[in-house]
Amino acid sequence: MKVLGIDIGGTKVRMGIVDSDFKVHLDQQVPTTFPLYDMLEKEILAILDEHPDVERIGIGTHGFVDSKKGRVVYATELLPGWSGTEVKKQLEQATGRKVEVDNDANVAALAEAKAGVAKDYNRTVCLTLGTGLGGGVILDDYVVSGGPNGGAAELGHMILYPNGQPCPCGHHGCFEQYVSGTALKRRIKESGLSYTPRELFIQADHDPKAQQLIKEFTSDLAVIISTLQAVFDMEVVVIGGGVSESADKWFGLLEEQLENHLLNPIDVKIAQFGNEAGMLGAALLVLK
Ligand SMILES: [Zn+2]
To answer: What span, in angstroms and rounded, lies between the C-alpha atoms of 283 and 100?
Structure first.
């Protein structure tokens, strides 16, 4: 079977045709333009015209998604006009194909759980440390997602420090404000350093201030993983996103910190997929 996997982000939409063996037959990107639904339908119909053997369509998108209804409950101004869009309903009518929609972090987690570094595990939690903190939870074949507010598995907005750093979600002290790439930038600035996050990790061997920051970062990440273990009892945690690219500089410290925090040992792995995770995971939504 061939399916179309689509990853919708604020600047580009990536579309790929993937078969049952996870082989990618087409992989293309177009800039995100608005109105987004009209653009999406047009692009999809053009692909289906050329590839009529595509049987189903999976979509991963930024925003809160009611995955049962395939409806975007809420998307930030990154995707203006996208909130409230009945993506599944409209696209099924327009294409005659089965369509599934989920949040981009959830589908990236699905890619790792089914075809990536966690494929030999049954219970996987993925943390994508990028601009924000994306979370994805796959328990057996079940993607923990959706809900009437599309808010399940929004791990980035669990609270680490009550009354802590303000978060765009309206709360204070969310996980996302301490271990994302953006959070690292804030922590670096507050310490009076002028590194980029990548430089921070490189400088850690010589700069005690940088070393201290990385200790605080890994300590927070260990507490976060421990909290998630108490909820999900996962077998593996997969860490992806920009911050994971410097993992060789902080992975050892994280493992040390985890020894103090975990109820039981678990495996921690660095994500196998990069930017392609969203497109592959979206395809996997409909490849089951
Ligand atoms: Zn938040």
So the answer is: 9
> Quick one: tokens of 65?
């998604």
Does 262 lie in the same domain as 141? yes
CA-CA distance, 33 to 13, in Å (whole number)? 9
The range of the structural domain enclosing residue 220 comes to 119-270
Domain count, the chain: 2
Each residue of 214-246: pLDDT tens digit? 999 999 999 999 999 999 999 999 999 999 999
Q: Percent of the chain having pLDDT more than 70?
A: 100
Q: Ligand 1 center to residue 43 CA distance, Å?
A: 33
CA of residue 188 to ligand 1 center, whole Å: 20
Coil, strand or helix: which one is 266?
A: coil
Q: What is the CATH number of the domain that holds 22?
A: 3.30.420.40
Count the residues in the chain.
288
* One domain for residues 12 and 142: no
Strands (E), the chain: 2-8, 12-19, 24-31, 54-61, 64-66, 71-74, 98-103, 123-129, 133-139, 142-143, 236-240, 267-270
What is the Cα–Cα distance from 47 to 199, expressed in whole angstroms? 42
Assess if residue 103 is contained within a domain: yes
269: CA distance to ligand 1 center in Å? 25
